[in-house]
Design goal:
about 60 residues; little secondary structure; Herpes Virus-1; about 10% helix; binds zinc ion
Length: about 60
């Protein structure tokens, strides 16, 4: 089984998290869209971690 690629917001389920698009993740890689992260004051509801801007994947 390959690791699951999280490309959906875990809060609203929006498939808005393009691989190089804007998103917020926490230390445990919970993923959220930007509007949800803003609504949650950048605090992960799953583990209480801080949500930060996901770094863009550097093209090889
Ligand atoms: Zn969302
Ligand atoms: Zn989390």
């Amino acid at each position: 089984m390959a690791l699951e690629m999280r490309d959906r917001c875990e809060r609203c389920g929006a498939a808005a998290l393009a691989p190089d698009g804007p998103a917020r993740i926490c230390s445990y890689e919970c993923s959220f869209c930007v509007p949800c992260a803003d609504a949650m004051s950048d605090v992960c509801p799953n583990c209480g971690g801080e949500l930060v801007a996901r770094p863009r994947r550097v093209a090889g």
